[in-house]
Amino acid sequence: MTEYKTITEFYENVASKELRDLVKNAGKDDILADDYPYERQMKRKEFEKKMEPLQIQLVQMQNALRENGKRVAIVFEGRDAAGKGGTIKSLTMNLNPRSARIVALSKPTETERSQWYFQRYIKHLPSAGEVVCFDRSWYNRGVIEPVFGFCSEKERDAFFEQTPKFEQMLVDDDVIYIKIWLTVSRGEQLRRFLARENDPLKQWKLSPIDIKGLTKWDAYTDAINLMLKRTHTNHSPWNVLRSDDKKRVRLEVVKHVLNQIDFEGRDVSLLKPDEKIFKGIT
After folding, report:
1. Are 266 and 254 in contact (CB under 8 A)?
2. Each residue of 192-219: pLDDT tens digit?
3. Confidence (pTM)
4. Could you tell me the CA-to-CA distances from 3 to 143, 214, 215, 277 in Å, in that order?
5. Can you list the positions of beta strands (E) in the chain?
6. Rounded distance, CA 241 to CA 57, Å?
């Protein structure tokens, strides 16, 4: 199979005509997914109006966490270009960085590869009063590693066996543990990749794995479905959200997090979820 070095090469030589036309002919605010519940993206003014009071709620939440010593760990996973980084930023941008951390680990070192798989993540778990957001996590072994052959089937099976137990220990130790999976349509993913490639300020967001992954959409789908099925539990359920509209999904993730944490001054009237953005697990 020919390997392509750029997103544009994939777009011009591999993507179907239907997919190319979809991306080419779409307006800036058009939603590309046929099954998305809205035809156009939310307007910025509407988004900012709805987000502002939620940001105040987040600050109040953090103040309460510092006072009561609760610990919050949030795992953000999803398709490439599904908007994990921007969603995390919407959640943390007004929080005190002394007690709100983002963990985005690079590939493991030789030493880390010789350790128990979860070991390098454990040291990043929250202490009292902290919120920790994992921008990708141990779930690399559930999807990315098997798709690219970076782990064996035996290693993935061990991961599926151990993960619910590991997460049960977090919950049993009174960690407020939230798992977010962002899903995005193939057309929207390609549109975002092309935009990154053509923007000198965003090219750092692209990696060789992103480019190779474009030809592995179906393999990713199979791996994702299996991972969700094997690691969705009552004590640590997955929350799967449609992210074709970045603004809507950011609002829903912030509301969801606020709904999981009880604190004085929480305004539940602001936190009613848009259920159409959430997607069930099959």
Report:
1. no
2. 999 999 999 899 888 888 989 999 999 9
3. 0.96
4. 21, 11, 9, 35
5. 71-78, 100-103, 131-135, 175-183, 238-242, 278-279
6. 21
